[in-house]
């Protein structure tokens, strides 16, 4: 038997498709040939596998021709994860371990020259796929906790090639790894009770959480915009185990730790200088970006006007569909990116327009240019725009002591229960369903149109206002929005008013 087949998995985006490592020993010119689209790291694995086998005390068949094929050939393959399957394939093909030892088993891991196993990225997607295939998974011990998040999978953690072989020969048994499933966190790590004042901003945060609305805070530096935004995950509903696993799978592929953040709703706050690839994902071997790391959680963009406009435009797709497609010449990837956007901005370049503590040094032209940097289509996807003013001195020194996140979350959960019958959160409710749910009378509609016109708000603002008003009604436990709730909702279009009428023509068209 000079042919061996070992089952392993590639990492393609968030997927882990099966790869068969076929090893054939023949009597040709001695040497080791790797075929099946191996990239540089895989080619280097030739040297690592040889050293690891020799240093672990096994025979490396130096007098035979070794052909290793990674199938299917059209799948991109990267990293050192194929070292272990290649080494085991050589050991089976050269009859140092029996074929039967590999039955029902998948394995992967990078080998050090002395035969020790190094961890790989993306172990969780591999584990989920192995579990679905009904096989056991043998992988580096450092990845064992992560892999064990795939419930019901038998995970065999290994430190060294010698230990793997001893196990497969039945000389020394490896105990399957046990991980007590981490409990989902009880409460948020950052609490709204720590925030001083800012009643309108706190209210907007609650409305955003209740209806799934995107939110923009505008105000001078140092007024707590970041502090407020970071409290949004803590008032959203807790993650389910399935959602927690999806979040963990993305972190796994990005090589980030899983267990310390297990069950927390993500909060990602990339800097405005971050590259497009870092933000939305991509690269020659496409990886998820910040918007995918924020999946099921919150993406916070501080100083929104400073972000590259092109990158912000790309975010329109995930804001609509909850996923991002990344096209490359050779392949296309789709990553989940269903996040809630919270953005913040200063009112002007110096940051102090309207600030009683310090006067603004910007010219009106500078202010206008700064505010017009915001993309209209992106702003159209932000239902709530709220001013976060500088606090009066007496509020700065007063104790924080507002409502706790737990109290606010109860109201958010109740409001979300009211939305269940509609099929979507209010932020994503299609126009027709929205109109039906709000059930405005002819007179109310005329009144609202009149108010919007007098405030110089665009026609597009009409649906935004309805959406938010419906969430206000849900929070109040009422069937449909009242005039007071419509007025409150209009109050959350502050930036539209700052931007004045310049956009109106385009938006109505
Ligand atoms: Zn200024």
Automatic annotation (TrEMBL):
Keywords: ATP-binding, Nucleotide-binding
Domain of life: Bacteria
Keyword Nucleotide-binding: yes
Ranges of residues in domain AAA+ ATPase: 211-392
Coiled-coil intervals: none
InterPro entries in the record: AAA+_ATPase, CHLI-like, MCM_dom, Mg_chelat-rel, Mg_chelat-rel_C, Mg_chelatse_chII-like_cat_dom, P-loop_NTPase, Ribosomal_Su5_D2-typ_SF
Pfam families with a match to the protein in the record: ChlI, Mg_chelatase, Mg_chelatase_C
GO molecular function: ATP binding; DNA binding
Family classification: Belongs to the Mg-chelatase subunits D/I family. ComM subfamily.
PANTHER family: COMPETENCE PROTEIN COMM (PTHR32039:SF7), MAGNESIUM-CHELATASE SUBUNIT CHLI (PTHR32039)
The name this protein goes by in its record: Magnesium chelatase family protein
